[in-house]
Specification:
This protein is of the alpha+beta class. It has helices spanning 19-29, 37-46, 94-108, 123-131, 173-183, 200-207, 259-273, 288-294; strands at residues 3-14, 51-57, 60-68, 78-85, 113-119, 135-146, 162-165, 213-223, 226-237, 242-250, 278-284, 300-301, 305-311, 323-331. α1 (19-29) packs across α2 (37-46).
Length: 332
């Protein structure tokens, strides 16, 4: 029986060719952090330097890639990248083609490393990351809260603290940003610079606008007119009623007084009152204070979220505009 070659054609085209397919593929791979097509379009409009691709294998849409600067971390030597390939299309060079493309774009941004997001229940993704020299710099203990039958939480506030939201008090947006500027560097992270929300203008455009943003579910703890804490829900999938606890932060001098628990309870009550089906969240495993807040509510565990950090592809040539041919041995 004579061996022959089976030739597949890999092509990377602009992500805007089919944003719906981009979202579908990404959600199939990174299935615990959902994204809508409208959110992808919002990111394109608000993230300078973002470039994304749709990967085709013999004309079929099977993968997505993207690369951009990390907002608020301009001094970092890493760019943030997406590399998702459907399980049935793996092992044929699609992930490697995306890796080369995002690496070339990262170089054009002046970066020498990549950060990638994945989950521990994707063994193929874990192997790909390890094989290319990536290490985990942030492990998030992911959780979900199914709201059908979920008990209604009490919102217990310290004296002289009130909770409002950005729909009622939009002028508090800058105080929200200032609180994050104080809180985000405290998040455990093994990168090269501390986490940051970026400038107020960057933060407002990215996080306080667009299809994920829910002003009435962006809760703000206030003391004597000053923002001391925030808890924000953002849409993952509006049609399915799934939202994410995007941010929960309290100023350092106000921690340990129950404000974070009250803000999370307010989010859960809002979700119940508005007919949502599920909330998802995740905190770095070393962030014991945030995880202790979650322990007050009936969350169920999900697979750990993994933030990888690693090198650019050694072949820096950008093949993203070319047809990339790969050959695999086969037999009759």
């Amino acid at each position: 029986m004579q061996a022959h070659y089976v030739r597949s054609v890999i092509e990377l085209v602009a992500g805007s060719t089919d944003t719906v397919a981009m979202a579908r593929i990404r959600n199939a791979v990174v299935r615990w952090i959902l994204i809508e097509p409208e959110t992808i379009e919002h990111y394109r409009a608000t993230m300078p330097g973002l470039r994304d691709w749709l990967a085709l294998l013999d004309g079929e849409r099977v993968g997505v890639g993207g690369c951009t600067r990390i907002t608020g971390m301009d001094e970092s030597d890493a760019a943030f990248a997406v590399n998702c390939v459907l399980p049935e299309a793996r092992g044929q060079g699609v992930g490697t083609a995306i890796y080369r493309a995002v690496s070339a774009h990262a170089r054009s941004l002046g970066k020498s490393k990549l950060e990638l997001l994945g989950f521990e229940d994707d063994p193929g993704g874990v192997r790909f990351a390890e094989r290319h020299g990536f290490v985990v710099v942030n492990r998030a203990r992911a959780l979900r809260l199914l709201l059908d039958g979920c008990p209604r939480s009490s919102i217990d506030l310290p004296e002289k603290i009130e909770i409002t939201n950005l729909a009622e008090r939009p002028e508090l947006a800058r105080g929200v940003w200032e609180t994050l500027c104080e809180a985000m560097p405290d998040i455990p992270y093994d990168g090269d610079v501390p986490m940051s929300p970026g400038s107020f203008e960057e933060f407002a455009a990215l996080r306080l606008a667009g299809p994920r943003h829910i002003p009435e579910a962006t809760f703000v703890a206030v003391h004597d007119g000053e923002v001391v804490g925030l808890g924000q829900l953002g849409w993952m999938d509006r049609a399915s009623g799934i939202a994410e606890h995007e941010m929960l932060a309290v100023r350092g001098s106000w921690r340990g007084r129950g404000i974070a628990r009250a803000l999370k309870a307010a989010q859960i009550v809002w979700a119940l009152d508005n007919g949502l089906s599920e909330l998802r969240t995740g905190n770095e495993e070393r962030n014991l204070a945030a995880r202790a807040v979650n322990a007050n509510f009936p969350y169920a565990p999900l697979p750990d979220g993994l933030l990888y950090r690693g090198p650019l592809a050694t072949d820096g040539s950008n093949r993203s505009e070319d047809r990339i041919r790969t050959e695999a041995n086969g037999s009759d």
